[in-house]
Amino acid sequence: MAFLVLLLLLNFVFNAINAQSTSTIIKPGSFLSPINNSYLLSHSGQFAFGFYRYKNGYSVGIWFENIRQKTIVWTANRDASPFPSDVTLVLTTEGTLIVRPKQGQDVLIADTSSDNVSRLATSASMLDSGNFVLLNSSGGIVWKSFDFPTDTILPGQRLAVTGKLVSSVAESDHGSGKFLILMRSDGNLVQYPVGAVLERGAAYWATNTFNAGYGVSLNLDGNGHLYLLNDTGFNIKSINTNYVNASGKSMYRATIDTDGIFRLYSHSSNRFDDWYTEWSSSNYRCDPLGLCSENSYCVMMDGEPVCQCPPHFDFINEKRKELGCRKNYSLVACDTRNG
């Protein structure tokens, strides 16, 4: 019994030390590093901002910290190479948030440098909303991650006119992927393959609110309601039409996933639970145009989208079938001789 009490006491001390070693704010002169003091926690501990392991190094981002699945919701410079372990993240006296390597050039994360002192960041903080902010000397927000989303929006965050979310390459690769969702200036929220926004017929899902006018934004509230507001603050469309303010969940996020489908997820207060899909833009996972690349097509097998090649074509890469197919001229020649 005494041994058990000792273990519980040691665990309490360890957790207390760990909590003390994780800051809640960055000021000029303080820093984060991948190895020591690697992230900031929000006040409740729900969100973290800082370095996370990525590929063969580290990236800077925001994630859900107090659940088993440390879900990434924002990444700075998402298409850049991972950082090595000897870098530091610092807020300079000039109001810039940078990653500083031991050798080479600084990498900019956020910039508030200005001749106007009221616009100059003097501290940075991770809020319980999941919004990482830079603050001036009066505590006013002068920069926020909510203005620069990657593939996800959180409750209280909005996707304004011309704003977009871009899918990740893969679950383990947070670089820009193949699909996006765009808040168009005509009021229509539309999903496209990346690079095909201007192509006629390229959209594969939309809210059909193209007559709503300029100023429409996509919003998610704390009860899991996904909706469009016009510039007067009027709700013009509930996107998850079966929304019921009774799911009993405590966390929500809306993400355009790697497969090109926009989904609303919820999570209970039990940290060991999984994310639950409340709504999705399509229930047919072959809908996203461009899911399978050149000379290939999508079919559903056992509930999963699978890319296939037509006759006389082979996969460019058998391990990455989404890259598409190319013609196998030896098969074509063989069929010609046999014909």
SSE arrangement:
Blueprint: H1 2-21, E1 25-26, E2 31-32, E3 39-41, E4 47-54, E5 57-64, E6 72-75, E7 88-91, E8 96-100, E9 107-111, E10 123-126, E11 132-135, E12 141-144, E13 152-153, E14 158-159, E15 164-170, E16 173-183, E17 189-193, E18 205-206, E19 217-220, E20 226-229, E21 235-238, E22 251-256, E23 262-267, E24 276-280, E25 297-301, E26 304-308, E27 313-315, E28 325-327, H2 329-338
Antiparallel strand pairs: 1-10, 2-7, 3-4, 4-5, 5-6, 7-8, 8-9, 10-11, 11-12, 13-22, 14-19, 15-16, 16-17, 17-18, 19-20, 20-21, 22-23, 23-24, 25-26, 27-28
CATH second-level architecture of the largest domain: Orthogonal Prism
Mean pLDDT: 89
| CATH class designation of the largest domain | Mainly Beta
The overall strand count is 28
Task: Describe the strand arrangement of the main beta sheet, using strand numbers.
Answer: 1-10-11-12
- Poorly predicted regions are 3-21
Name the CATH superfamily classification of the largest domain.
Bulb-type lectin domain
The percent range for helix content is under 10%
CATH topology of the largest domain, what is it called?
Agglutinin, subunit A
- Spatial extent as radius of gyration: 23 Å
Strand-and-helix sequence, N→C? HEEEEEEEEEEEEEEEEEEEEEEEEEEEEH
Domain Bulb-type lectin: 26-147, 150-277
Protein name: Bulb-type lectin domain-containing protein
Organism: Gossypium tomentosum
GO biological process, one term: recognition of pollen
